[in-house]
Amino acid sequence: MPTRSTWQDVMITPDNGVNRSNRSRPEKNMGEERMRARRIMASSSSPAPPSKRASNMAPPPPSPPWEVVLLLAQTLDPKTLAKACCVSKSWYSAMSSDRLWRPICLSHYPSSLHLVATDPALSARRLFALLRASSQRRHRNPSIPRISLRHLIFAVDIFQRDAPVLSLAKPGEELCGHHGGVFRFEAAVNDGDASLEVGEVVKIGWTVVMKGWRGAFAMMDRVGKGRAVGGDGLWFSEGLPSPGCCSASMGGGLEAELGLEFSDDGDGDEEAGRRRVARMSMGLMSIADWRYVGVDDGLLYLQHFLLPNNI
């Protein structure tokens, strides 16, 4: 039988089963209360279900009926109507109808009525886009040449009776330009022996060379007596080929012109019909209106032959 001290030891021992069960009851109740409080707080802070949130929001405004949209579409200009076709698939289907585009097409291009008759499957919107693009392509801004005079060298060789009379090679930036911005340039001839027999056949070669020997184009390869200009010079001209894909037989509508101006200081043997060449002029002329083309137009023409691959 245990003594009194033994029973006291049992009562105060922490590992005693009876004593531990008595102390764990309030701790267990406190843990359950904490868990219940956490569940209540979590449920109060969680968002409302989608159905409840949707019920609190204002409904979206109703879409206008298609009849109203199509009535408004009839008052739109072609550019705005084309933008409306990009809103969605349903808008594209509605805004691309021939009922909307046929009046626009006929008002701008009445001949489109006959074009539609040749191909009924062609939509009025597509036909209007093709005709509008063709008009804009005609009035597009001119191209800017990729070469300039500083990239070019003008070389001229003149023969008479199979003997060289004059040879000249001038960089483009050293030539004297003509006023008005036209493709016509002048150069002084400093060779005192450059004289011609007036009235005799002359062979002239004029070549434009790209610096760095990237390309060359013969502007003139002419044999003839030339045209007298008031007794003070001779004028030579020759047609030029068309640029690009056109054949040379069609003609480019341009002519290369080269003029020789004689000296009036008494140099040369005038009794023998010889005159000294003092100045030379070179130009590019349009045969449509017999005017010199602009510098940019002349450079664009040369660019077709000097840079055939656009390198």
What report would you give on this structure?
The protein has 10 helices and 12 strands. Helix content is 36%, strand content 25%. Helix 7 (98-108) runs parallel beside helix 9. The strands form 2 sheets. Strands 3, 4, 5, 8, 9, 10, 11 and 12 form an 8-stranded antiparallel sheet that branches.
- Measured between the Cα atoms of the first and last residue, the distance is 118 Å
Order of helices and strands: HHHHHHHHHEEEEEEEEEEEEH
Computed over alpha carbons, the radius of gyration is: 47 Å
**Biggest sheet descriptor:** 8 strands, antiparallel
Overall strand count = 12
| Tally of distinct domains | 3
Helical proportion? 25-40%
Instruction: Report the β-strand fraction as a percent range.
Output: 25-35%
Mean pLDDT: 79
Structural class: alpha+beta
Helical stretch count?
Answer: 10
Q: What is the approximate shape?
A: elongated
Low-confidence stretches: 1-24, 245-251
Topology:
Elements: H1 4-12, H2 17-45, H3 50-56, H4 66-73, H5 78-84, H6 89-95, H7 98-108, H8 112-118, H9 124-138, E1 152-160, E2 163-171, E3 176-177, E4 184-188, E5 195-197, E6 202-210, E7 216-224, E8 227-228, E9 233-239, E10 254-262, E11 274-286, E12 291-292, H10 295-306
Antiparallel strand pairs: 1-2, 1-6, 3-4, 4-11, 5-11, 6-7, 8-9, 9-10, 10-11, 11-12
